[in-house]
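Input sequence (110 aa), recorded before submission:
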Amino acid sequence: MLTGKRLKVIWIFTALAAVVLAAFTIRYTMLSGSQEALVGQQVYIAGDNQLVLLRESAFSNATITAILERGMLVTVVEVETNTRVPWLLVESNADSGWIEAHNISMEPPE
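Predicted structure, token format:
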């Protein structure tokens, strides 16, 4: 039988787990909603590196199809948020492929 002290500890852990799950759900919903609003938008390549790899599919180990330079303007065609990291299908003048969402900016990079 659960004592008052043990029951209280179980309720505290349950409440903490509920708060953490709610926070992740809200963050994911906000992230996927804002990413999907990008479809059809022109954005800039703005990764941490000078070059960003364009991939055949939305996976970091997918075949590299092209290399884009920081500052290039591309159009977002599709958003994939069912992966650990959000990916964007983008189209440039010459190529199309997938990049991780953190590699874009609405403003030209400095």
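Checked by second reader. The first helix runs from residue 4 to 36.
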